[in-house]
Design brief:
The protein is an alpha+beta fold and 84 residues long. It has one domain: Herpes Virus-1 (2-Layer Sandwich), CATH 3.30.40. 15% of the residues lie in helices and 10% in strands. It contains two helices and three strands, in the order ββαβα. A hairpin with a 5-residue loop joins β1 and β2.
């Protein structure tokens, strides 16, 4: 089951479970669409993979399987310091 991480790893923008702006790679690294497209060029700085829109979990399912609350924030990819 996806963690549905609460924020962009690059700019720390909030990405609630219902956000259509959340993008993930195959390892669930989570970025906002702006960072994924413009800053990172469509490539995950952690694994080198591509991004897909993160699925939206229905509200009823969130009651039983809530989104993650731990934030991952690595501003390095925004400064171009990470490699794929």
């Amino acid at each position: 089951m996806l963690e549905l991480r609460p924020g962009c790893e690059c700019c720390d923008r909030d990405l609630p479970p219902e956000s259509p702006e959340a993008m993930i790679c195959s390892f669930e690294c989570t970025f906002c669409s702006t960072c994924a497209e413009t800053v990172l060029g469509g490539r995950c700085p952690n694994c080198g993979g591509g991004f897909m829109p993160r699925p939206i979990r229905p509200p009823a399912a969130l009651l039983r399987h809530p989104a993650a609350t731990v934030r991952v924030f690595k501003p390095g990819p925004c400064r171009g310091q990470a490699t794929g």
